[in-house]
Amino acid sequence: MKTATIPALRVEPKLRDAVEEVLAEGETLSSFMEEALRANILRRQHQQAFITRGLASADIARQNQEYYSAEAVLDELQTMLDETKP
């Protein structure tokens, strides 16, 4: 499989120094950057899915005219949490 490249990233020397300070043993700057890209892609995909689910839920609530107050939701969550405690 062929590989692709990502354009060079110009950063301030302080940022490069900070990255180099936190590299794990045997970790390269390139592998760190690849991992950071993958993590941010995944985070954004999750964020987009979350927004999509929220908008769909809002549409359903509007159609059904069924809404809950924040207080009621928090109370229910607290009850669920209390039930899991020993």
Protein model, in words:
The structure is a single chain. The chain contains 3 helices and no strands. The N and C termini lie far apart (53 Å). The relative contact order is 0.05. With 86 residues, it is mainly α. 71% of the residues lie in helices and 0% in strands.
State the share of residues found in helices, binned by percent: over 70%
What is the H/E string?
HHH
Q: Report the count of strand segments.
A: 0
- Average of per-residue pLDDT values: 95
Radius of gyration: 22 Å
Note the main sheet: none
* Content-based structural category: mainly alpha
- How many helix segments? 3
Low-confidence stretches: none
Protein name: YlcI/YnfO family protein
Quick summary:
The chain is mostly helical.
Q: Which helices and strands appear, and what pairs or packs with what?
A:
Blueprint: H1 13-22, H2 29-64, H3 70-84
Descriptors for this entry?
86 residues, mainly alpha
